[in-house]
UniProtKB/TrEMBL annotation:
Residues 163-296 form the 6-phosphogluconate dehydrogenase C-terminal domain. Gene3D superfamilies: N-(1-d-carboxylethyl)-l-norvaline Dehydrogenase, domain 2, NAD(P)-binding Rossmann-like Domain. This is 6-phosphogluconate dehydrogenase. Belongs to the 6-phosphogluconate dehydrogenase family.
Length: 296
């Protein structure tokens, strides 16, 4: 069993702490929310850890992660190890690793998938960094990943940055899968020949080529709200989809499904689309097609 410092006890971090503790690991957590924190400050957390230390960071990507890594660089010592398990952009990892390497502190980036269900089911882990650092942290990874063969829930993807790159592509694929299920749901609802849409989707859970955990989650949502009419069709994106498309452009890799899924999310946020008003105007101009006037 190992000792671990865990920075960030939100939805994911909190559940990860619980899963690790249930397996017998000692976890000293720090969060700005005093109600869930084990420590008064980041420095207090570090002081409670025995050297050489391992600290896992689970804070929002971008500035918050970079700032946390920089602060840890001032608090940790040679031989310590930092793991960034958040959704950082892979280009940040080289910078973070360099900040820590000057102090003799190792760095791993770890893409984590599993959401709020990870505590029970385990997390899919994609790790980037030196092999020696990965092996040192393996007891943690083995506890967090799902039960079963290691290679089915864990991958040492490559050098620093590879873990978050793999997670970025994973999330891009996720966008496309979710959009396909969503469009199928809408088409089933639109076709009056199908009288029980939830039953059809539930029937896809076994024996079909479209069965998946995401489909299981859609069935769960439909059990709670068969027509999903308690929800607004407003969907945010957390960044990975955009980064995936940027990489597709950089490498000239066609990604029409992922791009369409991302743009569909943009469309969901528009209560009144200027583009679609222009389309309506053009159809009216060239074909005399009817338009709907505001207030008319």
């Amino acid at each position: 069993m190992v000792q671990l410092g865990l920075v960030g006890l939100g939805k994911m971090g909190f559940n990860m702490r619980e899963r690790l503790r249930a397996a017998g690991h000692e976890v000293v957590g720090y969060d700005r929310n005093e109600a869930v924190s084990d420590s008064a400050s980041l420095a207090d957390m570090v002081s409670k850890l025995d050297a050489p230390r391992i600290v896992w960071v689970m804070v929002p990507a971008g500035g918050p992660t970079r700032e946390t890594v920089a602060e840890l660089g001032e608090l940790l010592a040679g031989g310590d190890l930092v793991i960034d398990g958040g959704n950082s952009r892979f280009t940040d990892d080289k910078h973070n690793a360099e900040v820590l390497s000057g102090k003799g502190v190792g760095y791993l980036d770890c893409g984590v998938s599993g959401g709020v269900w990870g505590k029970e089911n385990g997390y899919g882990l994609m790790v980037g960094g030196d092999k020696a650092h990965v092996e040192r942290a393996m007891p943690i990874f083995d506890t967090l990943r799902p039960d079963g063969p290691r290679e089915e829930g864990f991958a040492h993807a490559g050098s620093v940055g590879a873990g978050h790159y793999a997670k970025m592509i994973h999330n891009g694929i996720e966008y496309g899968l979710m959009q396909a299920y969503a469009e199928g749901f809408e088409l089933l609802e639109a076709a009056k020949v199908v009288e029980d849409v939830p039953a059809v989707i539930k029937g896809w859970q076994r024996g079909t080529v479209v069965r998946s955990w995401l489909l299981d989650l859609l069935v769960r949502a439909l059990d709670e709200d068969p027509e999903l009419d308690d929800l607004e069709g407003y969907v945010e994106d957390s960044g990975e989809g955009r980064w995936t498309l940027e990489e597709a452009i950089n490498h000239a890799v066609p990604a029409p499904v992922i791009s369409a899924a991302l743009f569909a999310r943009f469309s969901s946020r528009q209560k009144d689309s200027s583009a679609m008003r222009a389309v309506a105007a053009l159809r009216n101009q060239f074909g005399g097609h009817a338009v709907k006037k505001i207030g008319g």
